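User: Hey, my collaborator sent me this sequence without any context and asked if I could get a structure. I don't really work with proteins. Can you help?
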Amino acid sequence: MKRTIVIALLLGLFLFMTGCGGGATPKGAVDGFMTAAQAGDMAKMKSSCTGAMLEFWGLLEEMKEIEFPGADMMDIAAELKDVEKITTVEKEVTGDTAKVDVTVDEETTTYIVVKTGGNWLISDIETDGGLLSEMLPELKEAIEEWKNQPEIPEMPEFVMPDIPDMPGDEGDGE
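Assistant: No problem. I've predicted the 3D structure and written it out in structure-token form, which is a compact way to encode the shape of the chain:
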């Protein structure tokens, strides 16, 4: 019995230290997400999310699958891969909701973090354009339109016919 408790505590400590499944604090959750993003660890990033962020994650995977234009530009991991300095500042905590400002290359984005099951998870992102959760319906609609567009037939490969040299073209170096 003691061995089971010790193993459970060690596993919990491991998950906490690796940032898997959120964080013990709002800032810790966002820091873990950013570290995972820079490492390209999609599974860890996804496990740090809930709500609109988790829904966005599903849409992003669908967008990549259907080769939706611009899907790569929305890849947070790719965007943060080569960034040298990321600053996170816990802005405000109200009950089980918090805001954490993340500054990357002098551009600040606010992450909305909620406490779920004892862990803090990222639920939304606020940018100059508004909340991610408010943009999801439009994104879903655009994805559906893209999926329902008529398929464009493959163009046959055009092969340039062999054209004989014209008289007088000999010796021009081509």
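In plain terms: Residues 16-145 form a domain with the Nuclear Transport Factor 2; Chain: A, fold (CATH 3.10.450). You can pass these tokens on to your collaborator as they are.
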